[in-house]
Amino acid sequence: xxxxxxxxxxxxxxxxxxxxxxxxxxxxxxxxxxxxxxxxxxxxxxxxxxxxxxxxxxxxxxxxxxxxxxxxxxxxxxxxxxxxxxxxxxxxxxxxxxxxxxxxxxxxxxxxxxxxxxxxxxxxxxxxxxxxxxxxxxxxxxxxxxxxxxxxxxxxxxxxxxxxxxxxxxxxxxxxxxxxxxxxxxxxxxxxxxxxxxxxxxxxxxxxxxxxxxxxxxxxxxxxxxxxxxxxxxxxxxxxxxxxxxxxx
Length: 249
Fold this sequence. Notes:
The chain has eight helices and nine strands. Strands 1-4-5-6-9-8-7 form a seven-stranded mixed β-sheet, with helices on both faces. A two-stranded antiparallel sheet has the order 2-3. Helix 6 links the parallel strand 4 and strand 5. The protein is globular, with a radius of gyration of 16 Å.
């Protein structure tokens, strides 16, 4: 499982188990978790991924992050005993956007992808095969708005991205995977729900989980910084993602 950090973050931030609970989850469930670093101004430690229309340094320098992931898989396959039929990508924000791009370009390699608070912003998406997609997003996200557009955090003109909306992201994947147009409600709790579009080609599905609150954060996690949004505890993104991966075809 590749876990891609958010824009302006780094691998160390994503590996913080207090915030994301990913290392403890991997220990418990017995999967290999990989925390890569994006690119950017190394001194600042604020790194990004080239997810298409986002973000910053990686986008502006046309960084080949897809090639990077392919190279990592080859390297890891030599170092570890991995099941190449069960390789997954997940990420937060810009890292989630990269996961969507990887689904577009590496559908034959990855088994499923999941994104938290990062929509699909890649304009050349034409996956060779169906691939299961999980998207998690808060209704009150002001950085990557649920209904698309430019978020509050994007005031610097060089950083501005007109983000794809969550409904548009989901409908694109439903169409690409040839899923049924009507979703089944598979989870409903106070403050959150999950809808799944099934019946896709090769058993591919698309699942959308929406939280009422939490803003731009990782559901079930902790605030990484005092200025960060307070995550919702309605669901655990980490648990929902792993369950989705386990059942993905």
